[in-house]
Design brief:
The complex is a heterodimer.
Chain A: H1 2-28, H2 35-52, H3 58-79, H4 86-108, E1 122-125, E2 128-131, H5 132-154, H6 156-166, H7 168-173, H8 178-200, H9 211-225, H10 229-249, H11 252-269
Antiparallel strand pairs in A: 1-2
Helix pairs in contact in A: 1-5, 1-8, 1-9, 1-10, 2-3, 2-4, 2-8, 2-9, 3-8, 5-6, 6-8, 9-10, 9-11, 10-11
Chain B: H1 4-26, E1 29-35, H2 45-61, E2 70-76, H3 81-94, E3 99-102, H4 106-119, E4 123-125, E5 138-140, H5 145-159, E6 164-170, H6 173-188, E7 192-199, H7 207-216, E8 220-224, H8 229-240, E9 247-249, H9 254-260, E10 268-271, H10 280-293, H11 305-321, H12 326-333, E11 338-340, E12 343-345, E13 355-362, E14 368-377
Parallel strand pairs in B: 1-2, 1-3, 3-4, 4-5, 6-7, 6-8, 8-9
Antiparallel strand pairs in B: 10-13, 11-12, 13-14
Helix pairs in contact in B: 2-11, 3-4, 5-6, 8-9, 11-12
Classes of the chains: A mainly alpha, B alpha/beta.
């Protein structure tokens, strides 16, 4: 029973981390290697909230705002001039990640720090006592998924975004301002990354490189899930579940490799991954 | 009016005197401190550096070591092997330090030792560790499992009637070494170990291990992670999972316990130093630290106080040897002692030191209440083959 909870909560965390990367990848066709840096920014936003002595729940909203603002600035200054050169853009995001890490080090120091958790302790569920915060994470991840689905399928921006994802040139020909769509997606994607950073910090700790290990897993999940939010949820459950099972029945060292190895195998035998087409 | 020749003479003389003076300064005694300012140890490293700074300041205020000024060279080892190689290399071969005195992870120490051997530099290791690290140039003034594990296990058996244990650690020399010793000791005392689990040093997701711990239902838990971050993440996640069995932590120090906040309450720890040791030397030390660092003071702890004593032990050895020559200092180190905050320290047992050990429990405010005291615990046979 506890294992099912472990799997679901792990999948929820992975989903929160990978969601922002997925939409940026969908619209821009580039993997945003600065995703880990935005995650770190979110973690430090939570740290600031802790230092100010605010209620820890504020760290989520605060992280989103900081993430969106940073994302918007980066899109204008770094990404926009490189839209015609996708490979250079990927390199730029990589470099950006390093720059952000160093700026954070200058400001907050190299050391590992800790944020306050909004809830502590365990609660009884399905005959088990389980970490309350991890259960709340599941609810938050579901809300996040529903909200993203609603925006993509129920708003004008969502419709335009889907159009750009499917065929950018055609969408532009139809009068859709694809530059605006890119701007909005990158900002929102950065905001989501920062949100994920704020969500995971109460479970662990904050340091200038905290985003890096998450980036690798999120990257693999996005590659196997193609372009859909549903298949991302499926990949998180399957690969996250595999990670939990391998960690439990083999050992956690092997567990750390599970997602990367499985993703590589899936892509070898089924290049479209978990996507339908 | 002095003649031109005289003026030139005075000029030459002045230059010579100045030159001599600067030559004297160039002969400072340099102490290298490779320490984990980043990575897992970053939570405790600043307190270690502060300890060394106080020792150096006090020694310099009283005329230095044999009239020479003590200068500290701090290098970040990144808490790991790769960083340590760079740090040791630059300290020994570029900065040309006279000695290394530092607290590090076992991974960093093991990576640094071959460089110490090559550079023939005395190295006083001031961190508690898994034991049995032996090298011609290495001395250790902190505890080893032989001194530390028994108090916790005995206390759990006596006071909580614990028969079954679960062990969790970071996957590196210290984590595995400590738990291996603990396992042997528990079995010797008739207890049973239900599980022994490890996570990589930089891992922060303990979910699967905590799941196994819950399934095993042991009477008590003993952990041995890398100092700092892994310790905090594990404790947070244990508490979030509602684990309330007696919890002994072999790797927590007072500063780290404080940064865990309320999650640390109730943890049992065994160590050679707690801030509320009631001795004049400790009070003097704490007052001096408070005066020097004020609001920036990092709580002195079992990892930082041995650093302070290590600098003084090195001073005593150099003065006894009458030089900073590595071989002479190494020979002298086991014969000198220093009365510090932890009591009288002498590294005369196969490069290790007998220590007074305390069993304590973390209180709500992060302070540590001493439950029992064990005077002069012997480190056992650590390096029987070392002359």
């Amino acid at each position: 029973m506890a294992q099912i909870l472990d799997i679901v909560t792990t999948a929820a965390i992975l989903y929160a981390v990978a969601a922002g990367l997925l939409i940026v990848f969908g619209v821009m066709k580039i993997i945003n290697f600065a995703h880990g840096a935005f995650l770190t920014i979110g973690g430090y936003s939570a740290l600031i909230v802790t230092r100010l002595g605010w209620n820890p729940w504020w760290s989520l909203a605060f992280a989103v705002v900081i993430g969106v603002v940073c994302g918007a600035i980066v899109e204008r200054l770094v990404m926009r001039p490189l839209y015609a050169r996708p490979l250079d853009a990927i390199l730029a995001t990589w470099g950006l990640g390093i720059v952000v890490g160093q700026l954070i080090t200058l400001q907050f120091g190299r050391e590992v720090q800790f944020v306050q958790s909004p809830v502590t302790g365990a609660m009884a569920i399905l005959g088990e006592s389980y970490s309350e915060y991890r259960l709340i994470l599941v609810i938050l991840a579901v809300i996040l998924a529903l909200a993203m689905g609603l925006v993509l399928n129920g708003t004008k921006l969502g419709l335009q975004t889907r159009a750009v994802i499917m065929n950018e040139n055609l969408a532009r020909g139809l009068g859709i301002n694809s530059g605006l769509v890119r701007f909005a997606t990158f900002s929102i994607g950065s905001g989501l990354a920062a949100l994920a950073g704020a969500l995971i910090t109460p479970l662990s700790s904050v340091d200038p490189n905290m985003g890096v290990p998450w980036l690798v897993n999120a990257f693999m999940l996005v590659l196997v899930s193609g372009m859909s939010l549903v298949s991302l949820a499926v990949s998180c459950l399957v690969l996250g579940g595999a990670q939990v099972l391998v960690s439990t029945y083999s050992d956690p060292v092997a567990g750390g490799l599970t997602i990367v190895v499985l993703a590589a195998l899936i892509l070898r035998f089924r290049p479209q991954g978990f996507a339908r087409e | 009016m002095a003649s031109r020749l005289e003026r030139i003479r005075i000029g030459i003389l002045t230059t010579a005197v100045l030159g001599l003076a600067s030559a004297a300064w160039a002969q400072d005694i340099k102490i290298g401190i490779p320490v984990g300012l980043s990575g897992a140890n970053s939570v405790v490293a600043p307190s270690v550096v502060q300890s060394a700074e106080l020792a150096a300041e006090e020694i310099n205020a009283k005329g230095g070591i044999m009239g020479k000024k003590v200068v500290l060279e701090v290098a970040d080892d990144g808490s790991g092997a790769a960083g340590a190689q760079k740090a040791f290399d630059s300290l020994i071969f570029q900065k040309k330090v006279n000695a290394l005195i530092s607290m590090e992870t076992s991974a960093a120490r093991n990576a640094g030792l071959p460089i110490v051997t090559r550079g023939k530099t005395p190295f006083i290791y001031t961190s508690f560790y898994e034991g049995r690290s032996c090298n011609k140039y290495l001395y250790v003034n902190a505890w080893v499992p032989d001194q530390q594990v028994a108090p916790i296990v005995d206390y759990f058996a006596k006071n909580s009637n614990a028969k079954t244990y679960f062990l969790i650690g970071s996957d590196y020399a210290f984590g595995r070494g400590m738990l291996q010793f603990t396992k042997g000791y528990i079995q010797k005392k008739g207890g049973k170990v239900l599980g022994e689990e490890y996570l990589p040093m930089d891992g922060s997701d303990w979910t699967a291990i905590i799941g196994k711990l819950k399934a095993a239902k042991p009477d008590a838990l003993i952990t041995s992670t890398a100092g700092g971050a892994p310790n905090v993440t594990l404790t947070k996640q244990l508490r979030a999972a509602g684990i309330n069995i007696p919890y002994g932590n072999l790797a927590v120090d007072e500063g780290t316990a404080k940064s865990m906040g309320p999650d640390a309450e109730g943890i049992f720890i065994s160590g050679s130093y707690f801030t509320n040791i009631d001795s004049p030397k400790n009070k003097e030390f704490l007052a001096a630290m408070q005066k020097k660092f004020g609001a920036d003071l990092k709580t002195p702890n079992d990892l930082s106080v041995p650093e302070y004593e290590g600098v003084y032990l090195y001073k005593a050895a150099v003065e006894k040897a009458g030089s900073t020559d590595a071989d002479k200092v190494i020979a002298a180190l086991s014969t000198v002692s220093f009365e510090g905050p932890r009591g009288k320290i002498q590294m005369n047992k196969q490069r290790h030191a007998p220590l007074t050990m305390y069993l304590g429990q973390v209180q709500k405010d992060g302070s540590i209440k001493v439950l029992e005291t064990f005077p002069n615990v012997d480190p056992g046979a650590q390096c029987p083959n070392l002359k």
